[in-house]
Amino acid sequence: MRMILLGAPGAGKGTQAQFLMNKFGIPQISTGDMLRSAIKAGTELGMKAKQVMDEGKLVSDDIIIGLVKERIAQDDCKDGFLLDGFPRTIPQADAMKEAGIAIDHVIEFDVPDDVIVERMAGRRVHPASGRVYHVVFNPPQNEGKDDVTGEDLLVRDDDQEDTVRKRLGVYHEQTEPLVGYYQSEAQAGNCAYHKIDGTKPVAQVKEKLANVLTA
Ligand code: AP5
Ligand code: ZN
Questions:
Q1: Which one of 39, 104, 165, 185 is CB 3.0 to 4.6 Å from 190, fit for a cystine?
Q2: Ligand 1 pocket: which of 4, 15, 156, 202 to mutate (most atoms within 8 A of CB)
Q3: What is the rounded distance in angstroms from the CA atom of residue 171 to the CA atom of residue 112?
Q4: At what angle do helices 44-54 and 31-41 cross, to 10 degrees?
Q5: pTM of the predicted model as reported, rounded to 2 decimal places
Q6: Probe ligand 1: pick from 20, 29, 59, max atoms within 8 Å of CB?
Q7: How far apart are the CA of 74 and the centre of ligand 1, in A?
């Protein structure tokens, strides 16, 4: 199964990706996580990406498209994958199409901006695994520690309120047009499109996803 998770920053893509990758046995491809790993490793890509990400802007299409194509070509993606945070612009979506990479399901997480700002303020992450928590809405079993490894949880550099607001602006301007793009693809019979109410609690969103994807 090949899936795209579409939605604003903080809409819950990474949270539900953890559930979906286990349920369907497919890898999560998070372009944000890939870029953060590159920053941590101090690679040339990481150095280029850091400033752009800290400003809440998007990394260039060329770089991202190359990164994703390379990742999809790996062996563990042959039975499917879960794209989290990609595509994020029309040229990125077109590049997938031109490369003949068909998509089965597009899932849109619908969450208003004010809810998102509140979520980001309490987000904590375990970078090595991609697991995501919230101090109130999805707390870890032990405060500040990852449930599986017990390692420290971190706050993402781009989660300050002013950066979050910039990222939301970028989302509405550059990524939201993909809603219409994939709805048209669905109408043409090229994929299924599911819009999910992402304001519901994590467990309810999970249940809804399981229902639409097995229906
Ligand atoms: P990326 O890492 O992709 O960030 P994002 O899209 O902005 O999304 P987030 O990871 O912030 O949110 P999410 O939807 O995964 O929410 P989460 O589950 O964590 O990208 C970062 C940067 O990298 C970009 O700004 C850009 O610079 C660059 N980049 C990445 N991809 C790119 C691309 N394709 N092209 C160009 N540049 C790119 O949840 C958020 C919080 O809410 C958590 O605390 C969670 O516990 C909580 N939560 C989740 N669900 C619920 C719920 N149902 N109820 C209550 N709380 C919830
Ligand atoms: Zn994420």
A1: 185
A2: 15
A3: 12
A4: 120
A5: 0.95
A6: 59
A7: 24
A 10 A CB-CB count for 211 gives 11
Annotation-wise, does 123 bind a ligand? Answer: yes
Q: What domains appear along the chain, each with residue ranges and CATH number?
A: 2-214 (3.40.50.300)
Q: Is the pLDDT of residue 214 over 80?
A: yes
Cα of 85 vs its chain's centroid, Å = 4
| ipTM value for the complex | 0.97
Banded pLDDT at 12 (limits 50, 70, 90):
very high
- CA 128 – CA 122 distance, rounded (Å): 19
Asked if 170 and 52 touch (Cβ cutoff 8 Å), the reply is no
Catalytic residue flag (residue 88): yes
**CA separation for the pair 196, 209 (Å, rounded):** 8
pLDDT confidence band for 215 (50 / 70 / 90): low
**Number of the ligand closest to the Cα of 54:** 1
d(CA 119, CA 66): 31
